[in-house]
Structure formats: structure tokens, C-alpha cells
Design a protein that fits this description.
336 residues; mainly alpha; hpI Integrase, Chain A; 2 domains; three-stranded antiparallel sheet; 3 strands
Length: 336
Amino acid sequence: MSDMMNPYSQQIGRASTVDSGSFQQNFPAESSDGKRKTVLEVFDFPDMIEEYLIELEIRNYSRNTIKTYKSIVNNFYKFLLNEKDLYDDRRVLRSFKRYIQYLKREKNVSQNYIYLVTVVVKKFLEFNDIDFLKDVKTPKRTKSLPKSLNESEVIKLINAVNCDGPKDGDSALQTSNKLRNRLILALLYSSGLRVSELVSLRIDDVDLEDRTLRIRGKGEKDRIVLFDEETQVLIDTYIEVRFHQGEHLFLNRFGNNLTPRYVQMMIKNYAEMAGIKKRVTPHILRHSFATHLLKNGVDIRAIQQLLGHSNLSTTQIYTSVDMQTLRNVYDRAKLH
């Protein structure tokens, strides 16, 4: 294979001034003192990682996606640091396979995470014109129906936050936070928000009259979502009585932005109080929102727009109709 056809050989030529020739002839690469150079000596991985993350930000990848990609690439690099004899692409490929094996056996990660690691590492290397993994096939993802709550469980969850009035001994802050928590649950369900979108909401994003929210979603894409009349009343009341003031809608007891982790733990606690045995997360409320809209006859393309999905196939994964609903639709069709 010629240098023109092999990006790795080209990079070696720039880094170690090896004479041009076939890929095999260029290996093992040598330094000026005649010692063999490993892949990690030829390539500046920390610099390559930094360049890649900058590119992702320029391309408007979300903050969470960039954080995930950064973790994946850094962890692979750390694994390579403990590998020996990385003198050609075959050995690097073998190390990558060992890394996948390590993730499965030692870290017990999911098949979907193995899929993500493979995709991200390949993208990272391709961005840097390195084709070590060009022949690696992307593993299959597991396709399981997403879990969701039924309508009665959603009502139980929201009602677990008692906001009928201040209890004896409740401070103004406690009263405000209870109302805030009930509103968070209502919004996650009635608007299908991601938890990252929820904690980023600003007062100016809320249009009470039109019952809409302006959301900055993944990839910095804006969309408009709706909320129902009950949530409209909750928002109006909460804005009037909230303890701290600030440009963000949801604040903690110190007046700072809420974190996604706080919201996750808060939902888990209220689910236990409501006696719901299922695992309940912000994402499951988003699943429930999409599923219930579909069950009630809303067109899947409208759901796609409300969820902020670029591809309809993603929406189809998020929405699952239970068997009883399918049976009812089937019976009404009178096929016989």
C-alpha cells in the first residue's frame, strides 16, 4: 500500500521523517537514535483529542454528547498507555479488541455502550486520518421497548407532591420548593422535555398565554413545545411565590440552577412515595409523554416535532403502544 493510500503512513512520514515507500516498509518506525517508535510516540493523542472535541463543539454537538465522547476517547487512550508493542496498525487493532473485551468482562457494560464506544473511537480516528479500525464492523445494538408509566401512575407521581397548602412548620422556601417539584414533574410529562432542557429553562422561554416553551435542544436546535392548562396554572403560581429570583425558571435552595442529578433523585424519591415499583427517571416521563400521545391518536410526525427528533426512526424507538391499545384498535378495524 502506498503512502498516498495510507493515512497512517502519511502521518508517520510527517512525524518521523521515514522515507516514502510501502506501509510495511515504514514499520517499525524509528527515531533518530534508531529506536522503534510506538503509535503513541508517533501520534500526539492528547492534542488529537483536543482538536476533535473542538470540532464537535463547532459542529454544535450538545454539551452532554461532547462530554460522553470525551470520556470514551480518553478512556481508550488510557487503555492504550498500558499496552505494549504498539508498532503497527495490526497491533493497535488487536489492542482495540482487547479493550472491548475488557469493557465486557471487567466493566460489564451494555451492548449499546459497546456500540457507542466502537462508533466514537472510529469517528475520532477517522477525523485524524487514521484508518486502524476501518475493517472493524459496528456491533449491533439491543432493541428493547422503552419503559413507560401508565396514565394512573403519572397522576400518582405528580400527586405525591402535596401542594394543597403550606403545612404547619413549612417555611416559605419549603412551600416554594414543593410547588417547584410538582411543576417539574408536570412539565417533564406534559411537554416531553429532556432533563437537560428542563434545568436550562429561563423565565423568558415561557409564554403563559400561548402555553408554549421555547426549547434549545440537542445540537443547539430551537423548538416550541406545549403544556396543558393545569401546568399553566402551576407555572403562573410558582413564578409568583418562588423563593429565589433569577433568569432561570428552576432554582435550588441557594438560588442556583438545579442539576440534572438533583432532578433524577427527586423523581426517584417521589416515585417511592407514590408506591410506584417501576424505575422512574426523567427519560421515562419523556417516554410516557410520547407513548400516551400516540395511544390517543396523535400523528407520529407531530410527536417527532414535539420531542425535537431529527429523524422519525428515533421517535419510533421512543414510542411504544401497549398490547391492550393495539387490541382495541384491531377490534375496531373489523377486519373479518
